[in-house]
Amino acid sequence: MANMMDYLDWRGDVPFSVDPFNEVDSLVLSEVAYVDFEGIVPGPDEEVQEDHLRRAGIPVVRLADAVKRYWELHTDLEIESSSTLYKYAPYVLDKLCSGARFGDMLLGGYVNKISPEKNEQMSAITFFLPDETAFTAFRGTDDTLIGWKEDFTFSFMKETEGQRSAVEYLNRLYRLPDRPGEQPTGEESPFSVRVGGHSKGGNFAVFAAAFCMQDVKDRIVRVYNNDGPGFLEEITETKEYLEIVPRVIGLIPVESVFGLLLNSKYYFKMVKSSSKGIWQHDALSWQIMRNHFEETGEISEGSLLMKRIIEAWVYGMNLEERKDVVDSVFNLLEDSGWENLSDIAAEQLHSIPELLHAYTNLSMEEKQKLHETMGSLLKFGASFISGELQEKIGRRKT
């Protein structure tokens, strides 16, 4: 069984002139977007330094230089001690240097915005490829509670701060100069753009491609959503969204949960994974054959059941009630003193006293809201599963 690391070993020396950019390349670069490029890859508005080149009017660095600098700042021990799904992304970055496919790539436009006040976590990087195209990758949900809270706000907000920042990012990088009657030349000349991301990054990619400026949108040839959630119906019915749908490819593992949530309207490919259940969300588990993913015929029954449970519960509440649920749960976690999910996972049973202490400090109104939230969730889940089982029994009898 082969994953993206095997793909880079076997086909990393095949240039884009021989085998054009494909869906696996999109997942590879979306995984690399999880790497911490702080102090390594310049942002779009940084001043150009002596060791920087320029592309599309922004400072960029060579891939080899970025990799060298990364390992000057980080260690294997730091990576191995991480508990996140994307902890091996630096090793994927490492492999990109070994072949002609990505070896001459330039990296630029790195941003990493985290704002607790705005419930925003948005990070992006742009890769300028040897085939004279660009790929912008939006990072998925990181380890922060802020990042995960923004994920849940998709259920009640038409537009989050992170999505707005993703739109601004594309506009900043790819908008052509205002020169009436004059065609831009040289480094400002237009080139084709691809956009993608994994998990929440896939959602950001689709949203940004749909709602960016028209001259930017016209240059986007493909959008890749790798197991990212969808949108409220108010978004998927807009003219801007429907215009980008034909250019979107959705990729989800057979036991996906995240990629099936909410509305999408675009075509999905279902891919095989070496993992089980929710761990199939890990992009390194997706199975690859030559230059494409191994596909499977249908999504698992368990994933569809989970999708129905979550969406029926969510849509059983109005937007304000959904917001109350998210605020109640995450406020309790934040009041316990945690900032990252890995902190909670590492603490395990030791986390219970912190939760209890945070709970006792809640106001009576906050406690009541939390009771109602958890009670309705447990009651609904039990009744829904019971109904599903009864329906199955009925089908078997007939």
Lateral arrangement of strands in the main beta sheet:
1-2-3-4-5-6-7-8-9
CATH topology of the largest domain: Rossmann fold
List the uncertain runs. 179-187, 348-352, 392-398
Total E-strand runs: 11
User: What would you say the CATH architecture of the largest domain is?
Assistant: 3-Layer(aba) Sandwich
Give the mean pLDDT.
Answer: 81
Total number of helical segments? 16
Structural class: alpha/beta
**What is the alpha-carbon Rg in Å?**
22 Å
Distance between the termini: 41 Å
CATH C-level name of the largest domain: Alpha Beta
Share in helix: 40-55%
SSE succession: HHEEHHHEEEHHEHHEHHEEEEHHHHH
- Shape descriptor: globular
Biggest pleated-sheet summary: 9 strands, mixed
What is the strand content? 15-25%
| Integer count of domains | 2
Short structural description:
With 398 residues, this protein is α/β, with parallel strands linked by helices.
Describe the structure.
The protein is α/β, with parallel strands linked by helices and 398 residues long. The chain folds into two domains: 4-299, Rossmann fold, CATH 3.40.50; 317-397, no CATH class. Helix content is 44%, strand content 15%. The protein has helices at residues 4-11, 23-32, 63-73, 76-80, 89-96, 145-153, 161-174, 200-211, 214-217, 233-236, 239-244, 301-315, 319-335, 341-347, 351-360, 364-397, and strands spanning 53-55, 58-62, 106-115, 120-128, 134-138, 193-198, 220-226, 248-253, 267-271, 288-289, 292-293. The strands form two sheets. A nine-stranded mixed beta sheet has the order 1-2-3-4-5-6-7-8-9, sandwiched between helices. The chain has a two-stranded antiparallel sheet with strand order 10-11. β3 and β4 (120-128) form a beta hairpin. The longest helix is centred in the last third of the chain and has 34 residues, at 364-397. The chain is globular, with a radius of gyration of 22 Å. Mean pLDDT is 81; it is low at 179-187, 348-352 and 392-398.
